[in-house]
Design a protein that fits this description.
199 residues; alpha/beta; Rossmann fold; globular; binds flavin mononucleotide
Amino acid sequence: MKRIVVGISGASGMIYAVRLLRAIPGDYQVHLVISPVAAKIMKAETGWDSAKQSFGEFLKKAQSEPFGQSEIITHSAENHFAPVASGSFLVQGMAIIPCSAKTLSGIANGYASNLIERAADVNLKERRPVVLVLRETPYNLIHIENMKKATLAGATVLPASPAFYHKPQTIEQLADFVVARVLDHLSVPHNLVTRWGEN
Ligand SMILES: Cc1cc2nc3c(=O)[nH]c(=O)nc-3n(C[C@H](O)[C@H](O)[C@H](O)COP(=O)(O)O)c2cc1C
């Protein structure tokens, strides 16, 4: 079973999380952790109400295009007994998308206060890919120092900085550029964007 851990933390840019989850192929199992603040921002930015439906149900209804149909298993951010809290649970890698400056700090400083930060911590110790889609601007020196620490510990800091050379016509195409880079770093196959030099 191919498994990916996805953490959604409390930063703006929930479209990146939705597009990523949509794109992961059906032969993957996704272990999803949404922080409490992220759930509120998700409601504000996408309309998903955690009290009314599961995130999996929302995803199926929210996406007009067919999506990868990966199996999504959601864990509470407070559940330190979840399988992804242990490095012995084999996964291909982890993305935190979007990643808040607070969650970056927790990871960079080994302060695993919730399941997102703990799962990142164990994947770094197991030397597996951990991709942090940081969403903050501008950066202060603390953010920059934490990006350096996380990078030295093995994470890939992949800020939500879409390019424009593929001439995106929609917000979804803009977001998919970033999502494609995340999937590349996790070695998850996709056809989200035409690669430079291949058109
Ligand atoms: C509407 C809203 C948008 C936010 N956007 C960001 C953001 O883009 N980047 C960021 O670092 N923090 C952002 N924050 C602040 C974080 O949510 C806050 O620091 C929180 O403690 C993060 O916790 P978490 O990373 O555990 O989810 C935002 C907060 C709110 C309410």
